[in-house]
Amino acid sequence: MKLNTTLKTLLATAIAAFGLTACDNAGSAKQSAEKDIVAQIKEKGVIRIGVFGDKPPFGYVDANGKNQGFDVEIAKDIATALLGSPDKIEFVLTEAANRVEYLKSDKVDLVLANFTQTPARAEVVDFAAPYMNVALGVVSPKDAPITDVAQLKGKTLLVNKGTTAEAYFSKNHPDINLLKFDQNTETFDALKDGRGVALAHDNALLWAWAKENPTFDVAIGNLGPVENIAPAVRKGNASLLNEVNRLIAEFKANGKLKAAYQKTLVPVYGEKEDLLAK
């Protein structure tokens, strides 16, 4: 009986040790995979980058089915630096609400989708160095302008799910009714249809949209704190994070970031270089 007890104890100890070793090995394998992600991208010869498909001038699909916009130009520069060609990108169309999930589920390696850096988001993804500055704005019809947030009390404001506009108004103005949509096109169509008195989004996007829709005006141009737009990678993906940080710094120094701005944003905003992060 005593022998059996001893054997059981030894067996339990061995099983526990094996389990710990397996966990350690699994953890080491995961860390190794994260460390080697840049090498894996180079081996595959393609980088998967999440971009918007309906948010000009930052990320959109043109009439010929080509990805265009400011974020897309930066993506092409990153692909050229890593893989030698701007064509070695698999563009993955994303929406504001699924940018984090696409990174967590490994559907993309990198997100370049006008992604505002916030403390809450930084807990679940890793942001690289910022490349643009942004604040919130509110656009409304010119014949019924919203010039002050107080005018929105008890009324319907249109926002996109997963955006800083949704978070800001949910936290700071619970007395405003939010009507939420997944896609930008849906949200702006709702404004045109009169389903809300105004629409809140990044101010740079609203200025661009209002330019194309002159019966509307961004009567509130700067709301809340100025925040940064930055690339994002999966949490813990240190190798790609470090590489993107290096490249963003390089693009700021060699003029590639400014060239992307001049190609895609100057035709919309004019020379507003304060939009670019230093």
UniProtKB/TrEMBL annotation:
Supply the Pfam families for this chain.
SBP_bac_3
This protein's GO CC annotations: extracellular region; outer membrane-bounded periplasmic space
List keywords of the entry alphabetically: Signal, Transport
Keyword check for Transport, yes or no.
Answer: yes
Gene Ontology biological process = amino acid transport
Instruction: Tell me yes or no: is Transport among this UniProt entry's keywords.
Output: yes
Q: Which Gene3D superfamilies match?
A: Periplasmic binding protein-like II
Per UniProt, residues of the Solute-binding protein family 3/N-terminal domain are 46-268
Q: Which SUPFAM superfamilies match?
A: Periplasmic binding protein-like II
Q: Signal peptide location in the record?
A: 1-22
Under PANTHER family, the record lists:
ABC TRANSPORTER GLUTAMINE-BINDING PROTEIN GLNH, AMINO ACID ABC TRANSPORTER PERMEASE
Q: Which family does the similarity line name?
A: Belongs to the bacterial solute-binding protein 3 family.
According to UniProt, the name of this protein is: ABC transporter substrate-binding protein
Q: What is the source species?
A: Haemophilus paracuniculus
